Amino acid sequence: MLFALAAAFALPRMMADPVAEISYSEFSQDLGLGKIKRVMIEEDGLTVQSVNRDVFVRLPGELLSAPYLDKLTAAGVEVDFTKPGIDPSAVAGALVPLILVAAVLGLLAIQTDFNPTARWPRVVRNVPDRFDDVAGQNEPKAELQEVIAFLRDADAFTRVGARIPRGLLMVGPPGTGKTLIAKALAGEAGVSFLAVSGSDFSAPLIGIAKNRVSKLFQQARKRAPCLIFIDEIDAIGRKRGGGGSAADREFESTLNQLLVEMDGFNTTAGVIVIGATNRVDVLDPALLRPGRFDRQIHVGLPDVGGREAILKVHARNLKLGTNTDLASIAKGTPGFSGADLGNLLNEAAIFAAREGMSAITPDHLEAARNKVIMGLERRSLVVSPEERLLVAVHEAGHAVCACLTPGSDQVHSATIVPHGQALGLVMRLPEHDRHCIPVEKLEADLVVAMGGRAAEEAVFGPKKVTTGAASDIAHATDIARRMVTEWGMSPAIGMVRVSRANDSFPPEVEREIRRIVEEMYAAAKACIEHNRHALDELVDALLERETIDGDEVRRIVCMRTERMAA
Q: Catalytic residue among 232, 395, 456, 457, which?
C-alpha cells in the first residue's frame, strides 16, 4: 500500500520526457539564425521551441527586461509567460513523505488498538466452571463464599451498610489454580467474567494502555454485577518511581488510571476486581490498600489430601485400571501443583495409549512421575562401559548415604538410565509434607549430595574423580549458604541475616559455608568407607538391572551392614 502511494506521485514525474538544456550562447546563435519560433518565460529560465526541437535555457531574472523582450518579438519569436499556480512536482515532493508517515501511524494504530474482528476485553457471560472443579484449595473457596453471596444478592449487604471488598488479590506459586478459582467464582455467582492479562495493557503508542484500562472498566460497568480478572497483575501494578523516561511515565500513567478506576472518582458498584500474581512483593502499595485490593488470598501448593482430590478431578475423564491407587501417587508427589498433577495424569494417559492399553495402570503412573521429576528417559544415549561403571558408583554412593544417614528422605528408586541432562540419579521422596526443615534434615541432604563424589574417590582414587558431581556441589553450596546467611544455623555467624555485598559475602561467611560443606563431605566419605561392601553390591545390582526400586536398595544396604556387624 505504501509503495503504491509513493509510485502514484513519483511515476508521472519519472515517465515524463526530459527537456534538453542548452547554453545561452547556443540560444543566441539560434535566435540570430531565425530558428526560434516560441519562448515560454518561466521562473528560472526559458522553455524554447525551435524549428526542430524543444530546449530549456537557464536565464537570470534580471536579464528579462522590457528591451530584451522587444528584441525577441522583433526577431519574430512568440513570447509567452507561464500561468501562476502550484508546481505538481513540488506538491508531490511534499506530500509523499507526509502520506508515508500517516500510513505508517495508521497501520500501527490498527495493529495495536483497533481491530474490528477482535473483541476486547473478552467477556464470558455463562462460565461453566464451578467450585466442584476446584480441588485442594478449601480455604480460598471458603473465603470467597461471601463474595458469591454479594454478587447474588447485593441488597442484603447494602441494607446493613456493609461494603463488599472492591478487589481480591490471589497470591501463590504458578499452577496452583488462581485462574480456575476466579472462573469458578464467576460461575458460582452467575455473573459475567472479563478476563485480561497484565501484558494486554502494554502498547507501543503513548496513551493506548491508559485508554485500555478505561475501556475495561467501562465495559465492566455496563455488565455489572461482574468480575474483572487481571492475570499476572504485576505487569501493570509494579511499584512506581523507576525513572523519568517516556516508558516510565507511560507505565505510571497506566497504573494511576487503574488506581482511579478501582477506587477514585469513577464508581465501580457491582464490579469486583480479582488480581493474580506470584510476585506480590513488587506491587505498588497504593494498589494493595483497603478500597482497592482489600484482601489477599493465598493459593498455595496442596497437601497430600489436596493432591489426592486434585488427581480425582483430573481423572474424571480418564480410564484408570482397577488397581490404580491415586492416594499413593499423591503421597509420592510432594511439592506438585495442580497443573503438575494434571500434567502427570496426561503423561500417564499418553504412555497407556502408546502401548495400546485401554486403561491407565500403576506402571504408567510411575513412568509419568519419573518423567516429570527426572526428565525424559534417554536409552538411546551411547555410554561407554567406563562411564557406565562411573555412573553406577556415583549413584550407589548417593543411595548408601541416603539409607544410612539419619534424617534423610527414603530412597524411592536408583537408576543409571540417562534422564534429561543426568546420566543417572537417585530419587528420594519424603514420607510426609514438610513445612519446617530441621538442621538434621539439612545436614542429611548435604551428606547425600556429597555421597556421589565420595564414592568416586573411594573406588577410583582422588585423581579419577569427575565433573559428574557439579550439580551436587552447587546444591550443597546453596543449602550451606542459606544455613549460614538466612536460617541462623551457624554458631560462628549467629542468628543474623547476611546479605551479599558486590556479589560476595564477607570472608568469615564464606569460610563458614566452606566449613559446613567440608564437614559433610568428610561424613559422606566415612559412610562410604565403613560400608564399602554395601556400595560394591549396589553397584553390581545397578550394572545388572539399571534401575532398582527403593525397597531393593534398602535390602542390599541393610543386608551388607548386618553382615559386617555380625
A: 395
For the annotated binding site for Zn(2+), the residues are 394, 398, 472
Start-end ranges of CATH 3.30.720.210 in the chain? 1-117
The CATH number of domain 1-117, selected from 3.30.720.210, 2.130.10.130, 3.50.50.60, 3.30.1360.120? 3.30.720.210
Residue range 69-97: mean pLDDT, rounded = 69
pTM, to two decimals: 0.71
Q: Which residues line the annotated binding site for ATP?
A: 172-179
- For residue 95 the three cell numbers come to 506530500
Q: Which residues belong to the annotated binding site? A: 172-179, 394, 398, 472
pLDDT at residue 501 greater than cutoff 90: no
CA–CA gap between residue 474 and residue 462 (Å, rounded): 20
**Mean pLDDT, to the nearest integer, of 533-558?**
92
Domain covering 304-374 in this structure, CATH number: 1.10.8.60
Look up 395 and say whether it is catalytic. Answer: yes
> Rounded to an integer, what distance in angstroms lies between the CA atom of residue 94 and that of residue 232?
47
Pair 407, 546: CB distance under 8 Å: no
- Cα-Cα-Cα-Cα dihedral sign, residues 208, 213, 216, 220: negative
Of 129 and 480, the structure prediction assigns the larger pLDDT to: 480
Long-range contacts of 344-350 (CB under 8 A, 24+ apart): 344/368, 344/369, 344/372, 345/311, 345/314, 345/315, 345/318, 347/371, 347/372, 349/318
Q: What is the CA 358 to chain-centroid distance, rounded? A: 37
* Candidates 3.30.70.640, 3.65.10.10, 3.90.78.10, 3.40.50.300; CATH matching 122-298: 3.40.50.300
Residue 206's identity, in one-letter code, is I
